[in-house]
Structure of Transport protein:
Amino acid sequence: MAATSATETPKSPYSVLFSIPGTKAFCASGALARLPMSMMGLGIILALNHLYDNWTIAGVMSAAYVLATAAVTPLYARLFDRFGQRKVGSMVLVVQIITMLGFAFAALVRVPIPLLFMLAVVMGLTQFSFGALVRTRWTYVLDRTGNGELLNTAYAMESAIDEIVFIFGPILAAFLAASVHPVSQLFVPTIACALGGTIFFTLKDTQPPVVHEVKVVSASLDDADVRLTIDGDASNTGDSGSALRNRLTIAQLKTSGNRKKRSIFTYAGVIPLLLVFIIFNMSFTAFDTSMTAVMKSLHLDSVLGVQLAMLAVGSCMGALVFGTLELKGSRWRYMIMFLAAITAGFFVIHLCQGNLIVIGIVEILTGLAVSPVFASGNLVMKETVPEESLTEGLSWVSTAGTVGASFGSMITGIILDHATPDVSLMLPWIFVLASIPFALIGWVITRRNVLQHS
């Protein structure tokens, strides 16, 4: 019997994750509900550029949508932490679907541009981060089942799912825009979000409990009962120190229970981490928009989705491998290494833009480092903020990414109206390179904080 167990093949960490009851359901439904994040931004650019033949309008409107999303994501995260995922999500999801359908129909009938801008902003204001909700569920479920050591695997897998969404999203958006109708790609993510979100919020067993902050308010020292107790203790024992201890306890209760919740931004390394993700994510929308222009100039619009998906294919592969590794040392160090690799990859893509096959191969190789950056950033946030602020912290990482994505599409759209795709294709490696110094600053700040408290 001992020999049998000794030769037994160890289980894959991914099989262990999905052997936990309820994980398959919330993971799959959360993935489906995330389809808008890979389709709406690009879908707006494809639709608006086709309808109005203007890159600036398309890029700025996509940026307006994403910036509106970024502005409210942390607010929704706080509501989820405070009131629970199901209670908040089921209400917001209904409003979200209505506004997404409203924008799609408005674009379909070609309403005036100012009205469409307003609808894009309103649509963005209803969006929240499904990825943060799923990652919070993983943290809760793994901790509850005694599998906390698999959190790195779970986060890496979620990064892989993000990339799978980004593989199929652009392909589907480009195919629908080119082969069905320029606005059809706005309806598909709306339907996916409605189905996935509805299923996700009906799953009660894996929903994290609401973490309530307990506030203790003591009676005043002038209260008659309190004064009687203190005087009685002092007179019975003859010990004035006893009365003093009681007074100190009351004073402590009066102040400690009313402490204000600490801001996410006050934790060491959080601000540099968010700056990294803002600048880093500018590269992806810059790359998507630039490659869209390149493929359009070559009259290869129908294969645009496949070309864009190569980066996501590599990222998905990188996430699955990263999830099986047990890396030692600071996660900041690995993040910097991956950022450097992505910088080199985007630089080579710019040099080889005349050969789409070579670009596709380099995209896959570059993508191997993308998901590990996102997984490392989420793990840094998880290790930095307390449990009751975890959804908010993870949402801020997502928000930083969406802010960066909006700036990237806006800047690239403006450049494309005044320069060539060759110039705009320089932006991705410049943006990633610019994010590395902030990662170094975050690493230094975090190390200093650890040394001070050790």
Remarks:
- The chain has two domains: 12-210+266-448, 224-256.
- The two ends are 46 Å apart (CA to CA).
